[in-house]
Amino acid sequence: MGLAKSGRTVLNQSFVHLACRQFSAANACLRQVQNRWVSCEKTKKMNDSKYDERLWFLHKGCDGKHYFISNPHTFPGRMLAWCPIRKTDFCVPKSEMEAISESAKYWIQGFLTGNQPNPPLDESGDVNFDSPEYKNWLIKIEEFGKTGDWE
Fold it and tell me: Which residue in 12, 15, 65, 92 has the most C-beta neighbors within 10 A?
């Protein structure tokens, strides 16, 4: 009986630990969505010389030019950018940009095209091009290309 009870205690402690880790990860993700100026966890701080000056945009929430770096692998449509004023990287969707350079325009177009979520699959794991779900996905993809926001 003592062994069974201690086994349950260990199991319960493991469950609580796992739940706390998941809650902590969800909170970190929520903070990142609420405050995109928090540096993306998957990147390290960089110095000002590691971006292409042709890939600039003006951000609605900050003065001056900002520069694209790469894919932060957070949410579909989020791009990793560098703010030289705040000296930090941040995640940004297209909808938060006021103006973009000609080069950045094409960079964004390619990024969003490659970042599109997959189409919905039917019960057999195939794409049903005639289904309402697929037609809805096409509408969402068109909007995704305009805003960089997915749902």
Answer: 92
